[in-house]
Amino acid sequence: MSESKSHRKLVRDALLNPNLQTALRRSARSYAAARRDVMQDFDFEAARAQVRAIKERCVSNMRALFERFKDEAEKVGAVVHEVKDGAEAAEIIARIARERGAKLLVKSKSMLTEEIDLNQRLSAYGFNVIETDLGERIIQLAGEKPSHFTMPAMHKTREQVAELFSRITGEPVSSDIPELVKIARQMLRQCFVEADIGLSGANIAIAESGTLVLVSNEGNARLVTTLPPVHIALVGYEKLVETLEDATSILKVLARSATGQKQTAYVSFITGPSRTTDIEKTLTLGVHGPTEVHIIFVDNGRMAMAADPELRQALYCIKCGACLNLCPVYNSVGGHAFSSGYMGGIGTVLSSYHGGLETVEDTLDLCSGCGTCTSVCPSRVDIPEMILHLRQRITARQGATVSRRLGTILIKHRSVLQSTAKLVRTVQPIVLRQDRTLGDIPIFSGLLAGKRLPGVAEKFLCEMMPSTSNHSGNPRVALFAGCLTNFVYPEIGLAIVDVLTRLGAAVIYPKQQSCCGAPALYSGDFTTAQKLAADVVETFNNSSVDYVVTGCPSCAVMLKYRFPNLLRGTHKSEYATALSRKVVDFSQLAATLLADPSKLSRFSTGYSVAYHSPCHQKHTLNTVQFSLDLIDAAGLAGVGAIEPDECCGFAGTYAFKQPAISASILDRKIESVLASKADIVATDCPGCIMQIRGGLVARDSSVRVFHTAQLLAGQIE
Ligand code: SF4
Ligand code: SF4
């Protein structure tokens, strides 16, 4: 699995495109504020649990729901078709259009029609399709593809839209947004009236009544589905739900997640063609709305995806786009860098079925695995988990790249890793600056862009720690250091031991510990990850302790959640589960042991501390509050979490695999750190420390970055 040169260029161009960067920043800011407001006083967790349950039930029952939908829709006069792909869908539409002598087709926004290239296919049949959603119309006029599920022209600034409209109308156009909207309205009005066929998608299809549900804000979907005499809707099978109540549950989260609204301006329920019985109670179709409604269900890989236990949950997606809006990578490169059609992490997964695994090879490595998407998804779709499965599939099919194979050799055996670290320690003085950061090394110029990275430590943690605790205490705790703490930041490990010991624990350091395997797993190398999981499980199960603590949330997630899966079905499975129960991250354990907050000395220096939440701590472990409480108890609070509290761009090996995107995410993080006016950034992850400290040092900032344990070390009486 390796990214092509052309895709690297696409990403680089996106990062250097000032219009795109402006558009992304403007949109991200306004969406985040709207979502925050609309989620207040709304039980999002309960609502999304309900939606998830509905989608699980309905996706596992798609065939039966389709039959019921067809039955009901045909009872009310709709015609229901089934097609396997875009070619068949276009053929049916072309036939309907030809038979009715249709010339002009108007269309409302639908990602499914983008997926199957419907406009291009219909144009090959000689039909003129006019997009009527403003964003879709903008990109149609510009000859581009959508860059977002719900905001297709999100990559364009108002200035670019004005320029485009000016070119189309031949008149000067101001970049005043209401003015631009007015021009679009004038351009499209007549099309609605003259159109012979209206094409739409559907957000939901209700089986019990054969009803289509369409949500929109502009009103164009209503005009498209009511003014022309024929309405043709294209629907994916995954849009089927059983009842009106199911649909209502989805509607409650859809607009909130998509645009930060409680509901969109229009929600249309369409059950068959327009009708009347006003004259002599005689049913007549086609009054003010269409006489004919055709509903085309498109497979295009959906049935196969539903049968795939690892990727089925991609069909639970309701295409709200929340995961794109808050994805740090999407907010750096925009939607077109996901060259496979659908955008973002979820787009990569969907495209692997709609277009084939080979179509997503380039985009698989764009995901940093931060988990933000899963935490905001109204259907709780675990995108990073599916990305991992896809990486494993590609690696299994093609083998690992040379650089990944080298990485694997390095981490697979503890002795090799330690020898390499010692070798680096010996030779690094020739490139180290006085502040112990690496000097300019041409082959690492990409990696070092925008930050200064440290060399390895003069003495590793494993060389400093005795293997047994020198005092008896309760509870007994084993420290899992992780590679960065061991080789680069041993002071973090020492601080953890210091704090926990002062809180009464007996801390041991099992000397045989190796890498947790995260770099291998996140690169798709399941075999190496499994081998390392087995090594760690064996080492720590021999240590008979109450807790296994780590100061790295990514390691904690590996030990706690990934090891049981990696070792399922092996003879170590039971031990992995036993270890998982004991794993706890530093802040949670320290906060739990600190029953009496007065044990913690309060700082009197008046430092203000801003907290950066590491992604795995925030989205998987859910232990950020423990860190904030500890910092608060130490009298160091004052700023709280850094807003926006997003990824720093380190993400394990991501900073090495995607240095340019990582640097762009870091830029935003440093901006928000500086805006917070904090003296100190606290965080609980050595990787985040490396990234944020590196960014601040490169900018000559006086803001310092510490692990929470370092702030507390020596402060507990
Ligand atoms: S994966 Fe979730 S957040 Fe992303 S578009 Fe689908 S439903 Fe929305
Ligand atoms: S895990 Fe993070 S980087 Fe990957 S798709 Fe989700 S939000 Fe984006």
Overview of the molecule:
The chain has 717 residues and is an alpha/beta fold. It has three domains: 51-302, NagB/RpiA/CoA transferase-like (Rossmann fold); 416-593, Rossmann fold (3-Layer(aba) Sandwich); 598-712, Rossmann fold, CATH 3.40.50.1860. The strands form five sheets. It has a six-stranded parallel sheet, with helices on both faces. It has a four-stranded mixed sheet with strand order 8-5-6-9, with helices on both faces. Strand 19 (680-683), helix 33 (686-698) and strand 20 form a beta-alpha-beta unit. The radius of gyration is 28 Å and the shape is elongated. It binds iron/sulfur cluster (2 copies).
Structural class by helix and strand composition: alpha/beta
Q: Which regions contain 5 or more consecutive residues with pLDDT less than 50?
A: none
The biggest beta sheet is recorded as: 6 strands, parallel
Number of helices: 34
CATH names the topology of the largest domain as: Rossmann fold
- CATH homologous superfamily annotation of the largest domain: NagB/RpiA/CoA transferase-like
CATH architecture of the largest domain: 3-Layer(aba) Sandwich
Which percent bin holds the helix content? 40-55%
* Highest-level CATH class of the largest domain: Alpha Beta
Number of domains: 3
Mean model confidence by pLDDT: 92
